Every structure is written in C-alpha cells, then in structure tokens.
Amino acid sequence: MKCYKLSSTTDVLSLFQSLGVTKEGIAILKQKAHLNFIYIKDLKSPAANILKQDALSIGADLAVPKETITCKKPLVDALLIANDKQLKELSFKEKAQPFGLKALAQTLSQFSFTCKDDFTVMGVINANEDSFFQGSRFNGKSALHRIEKMIDEGAGIIDLGGVSSRPGSLAISEEEELLRIVPIVDLIAQNKLTCKAKFSLDSYSPLCLEYALSHGFEIVNDITALANDAVARVASKYKATVVLMHMQGAPSSMQKAPLYDNVILDVDAFFQERIEKAHAFGIHNLILDVGIGFGKTLEHNLQLLKHHEHFLHFGYPLLVGASRKSMIDTIYPAPIEKRLAGTLALHLKAYEHGASVIRAHDVYEHVQALSVLRALNSTF
C-alpha cells in the first residue's frame, strides 16, 4: 500500500470522478472537502460560548479569546473553522439560539459557495495621455488595431477609458472626456467589434456613458459605484451590466493616509449599500470590484486580495484590477514597465480566491497564465 498527500488546491470533484464515486457520493463528499475560515467581529460573549459548543458538537471549532468563558468582556472577536457541511449544520442550529445568533445564522448561510474556475480577461485601452501606464494609451486607428489584437489574444471584455483615475489625477469636463472617446467608440461600432467581445466604458459621466451604450457597449465600469443617480438612470435605460468599485475618497486625494476600522467589513458594508441602490434603479446585472489601490495602503490591498473569496457571498462576479499598480513597486521596487510578473502573481492569487473578471493591460500573458492555472487546479 502506498499513499501521498494532495495539494489543497486540487480539484476534488475531478478526483472524486476519477475514483468512480457515485453522483450521490460526490454531492455529500464535496461539502466536506472545502474548509471555511470565517472571522466574526463583536460577538456577544454568551453567544461565543454557545457557538463554540455547537461548533465542537459537529466537528467544527471556534477560536476565541481565553477570557470568553468568564464573559468578562461583553463582546469578543472569533474565528470559525468549518467545512461546507458543518457550516450548513451550524447555520441551522443557531437559528434557535439567543444573543444575536439567529442573525448570525442567516449570515453564515450565505457563505456556502464554491469558486468557479472560469475567467474573463478585460483588456485595458486608454484614450487619454495621462494614464499611469503609457503602454495602454492609444487613439484612432492605433486603438482599433490594439483592440483587435487583444480580442485575438483572448480578451472577453475591452475596457475603454478617457480619464485617468491614477492617484493624484484631476477630473476633466464631460465634454472633454466625450471628445476623447467618441473616435474610438465610433471605430468599434463601424467595425462591428461588439460582435466579437463585450465593451465597457470606464467612466462616471452620464453623457459619455449614454454615447457608448447607444453604440453597442454593454458594461458601465463606474469607479464611483453609482454615486451619481444620473449614471444609474442611464445604465438602467440600456439594461447595462454595472461594475461597482469601492474607492475611499477621490482620485486626487485617495492615497493620503487611507484608514479603515476593518477593510474587509468596511468594503462589504459599502457593497451592500450600493447593491441596494442599483436594485432600486432596476439594475441587477452587477460585478463587484474591491478597488485595489483606490484609497488603500499596501496592507489593505493585500488583505482584500487574500480574502477576496469573502465577497462572493453577494452572489455576483468579482473583478480584480491590480495591473502594474504601485503596490508591486512597494513590495519589490520596479518601474511600471517591469511589473508584469508582480501583476500576474496578484491576479492569479485573486483568481484562486474567487475573481472571475481580470482587468489587465497584458491580455496574452494573462490568458496563458490563467489557462495553465485552471488546468493545474482541475487535473488530478
């Protein structure tokens, strides 16, 4: 008899199938194969003691401060460790418990999900001369050729922008932004490229979005996450998909000492609010973007990428956009032109933690890297 240890990233469904496990058996076993680590903040001490005992009774566990059992502190933070099956059982158990555990049960039930292994690469095209990466700046026919090349390389979405949102950048008028994007939007429409890929406009200008959506664009990539009701109305009118991105502050000042109580929970609360607003305008096709580099320190960015899977509980696709950003330079000093390797490392980690839309300047390299990683994760 021989045995060997499998990596935690192995696709267990593929393994179960190769072993000849029945469909019924796979349905039961896959719930036991995925381990969840759930951080619970401000849990009442009596609730923590109850939850600890209930977790232990089903084979899960709850990490709590040592003084929890004496209830010296009214509130404690805790870490729940449970597989999908245990999470469902615990959610059911806590529905009958006091001290706020009924509400917690509802929240826990939202965390039973499985990351999908499909992906879409969103290629970046900028129609402005002040975007932070010179390699993404194009105009006229050069933009058309670049878009066609990205589609050939495997881009499923092309994201066009006419205004820089890099740290320290200043806003421009809607009219100026429109002048920048119209020639490219027109070329895209004239060459029927919207039949080959989806197109998004990186903008929060109702005027520009109206023009793009009326010419075949399908996605509104709004860094202000529908802060402007006029944008919401335009998106609703065209039944567009909307990317809701989190940003603390404005591009001109967002990197001046950004501060959060808890970046995961703060971004989560923001998404909850903006999702409700989108629904109020009849917008239900959404993509969520945690906004890497938009009002975040390096530590904030790393936390969001490491715990990206958390945001899947909203039930919407997750977009990540860390392409060639300054956080790479902070970790390993490198000019923008030499940050491709760091970009791939960040995006592959985000993909493994639930991101399915990858916004990148380098389409070919991303499609190749993600395809290889998907093969590694799905092959026993």
Automatic annotation (TrEMBL):
The Pterin-binding domain extends over 119-371
Q: Any idea which GO molecular function terms this record carries?
A: dihydropteroate synthase activity; metal ion binding
Reactions the enzyme catalyzes: (7,8-dihydropterin-6-yl)methyl diphosphate + 4-aminobenzoate = 7,8-dihydropteroate + diphosphate
Keywords assigned by UniProt, alphabetized: Folate biosynthesis, Magnesium, Metal-binding, Transferase
For this protein, the record's InterPro entries field holds: DHP_synth-like, DHP_synth_dom, Dihydropteroate_synth-like_sf, Dihydropteroate_synthase_prd, Pterin-binding_dom
**UniProt-listed SUPFAM superfamilies:** Dihydropteroate synthetase-like
UniProt cross-references to Gene3D superfamilies, sorted A to Z: Dihydropteroate synthase-like
GO terms (BP aspect): folic acid biosynthetic process; tetrahydrofolate biosynthetic process
Q: Which CDD domains match?
A: DHPS (cd00739)
Family annotation (Pfam families)? Pterin_bind
Q: Does the keyword Zinc apply?
A: no
Q: What is its EC number?
A: 2.5.1.15
Keyword NADP attributed: no
Its required cofactor(s), as named, are: Mg(2+)
Pathway given for this chain reads:
Cofactor biosynthesis; tetrahydrofolate biosynthesis; 7,8-dihydrofolate from 2-amino-4-hydroxy-6-hydroxymethyl-7,8-dihydropteridine diphosphate and 4-aminobenzoate: step 1/2
| Highest rank taxon of the organism | Bacteria
Which cellular component, as a GO term, is one annotated location?
A: cytosol
Q: What is this protein called?
A: dihydropteroate synthase
Ranked from the top, the taxonomy reads: Bacteria, Pseudomonadati, Campylobacterota, Epsilonproteobacteria, Campylobacterales
